[in-house]
């Protein structure tokens, strides 16, 4: 019985360490302004809306934009890669990445969010053609 209990405690401890290492914390611009930037180099997610007029494209696949929320605060994001089809100004976004020592956020991935009324462009075109 003691061996089983020791194995169970070991498995729980191992699982909690693994989950803690792979869990990304979620921040909004308002939360960052209130509590400060997360530790530099720690992987986090920042979410909100892409501020209208903030999207800038650089060389190759580089882009920069601001994430805003209802607090009036923003987080500047830089990203290199291909953005999802739904990514655009004024729409919801979740960026996963890291802050550096200076507080700059570099995204490793971007997810575009949509509401429950989302309909892919292909289906909209098909619906218009059949009406």
UniProtKB/TrEMBL annotation:
<keyword id="KW-0349">Heme</keyword>
<dbReference type="InterPro" id="IPR012340">
    <property type="entry name" value="NA-bd_OB-fold"/>
</dbReference>
<keyword id="KW-0479">Metal-binding</keyword>
<keyword id="KW-1133">Transmembrane helix</keyword>
<keyword id="KW-0201">Cytochrome c-type biogenesis</keyword>
<dbReference type="Pfam" id="PF03100">
    <property type="entry name" value="CcmE"/>
</dbReference>
<keyword id="KW-0735">Signal-anchor</keyword>
<keyword id="KW-0472">Membrane</keyword>
<feature type="signal peptide">
    <location>
        <begin position="1"/>
        <end position="23"/>
    </location>
</feature>
<keyword id="KW-0812">Transmembrane</keyword>
<keyword id="KW-0732">Signal</keyword>
<keyword id="KW-0408">Iron</keyword>
<protein>
    <recommendedName>
        <fullName>Cytochrome c maturation protein E</fullName>
    </recommendedName>
</protein>
<dbReference type="InterPro" id="IPR036127">
    <property type="entry name" value="CcmE-like_sf"/>
</dbReference>
<dbReference type="InterPro" id="IPR004329">
    <property type="entry name" value="CcmE"/>
</dbReference>
């Amino acid at each position: 019985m003691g061996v089983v209990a020791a194995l169970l405690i070991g498995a729980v401890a191992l699982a909690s360490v693994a989950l803690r290492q792979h869990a990304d914390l979620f921040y909004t611009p308002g939360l960052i302004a209130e509590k400060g930037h997360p530790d530099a180099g720690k992987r986090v997610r920042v979410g909100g809306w892409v501020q209208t007029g903030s999207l800038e494209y650089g060389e190759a696949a580089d882009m920069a934009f601001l994430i805003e929320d209802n607090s009036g605060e923003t987080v500047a994001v830089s990203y290199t890669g291909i953005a999802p089809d739904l990514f655009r100004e004024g729409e919801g976004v979740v960026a996963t990445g890291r802050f550096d020592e200076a507080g700059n956020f570099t995204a490793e991935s971007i997810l575009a969010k949509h509401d429950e009324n989302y309909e892919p462009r292909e289906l909209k075109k098909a619906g218009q053609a059949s009406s």
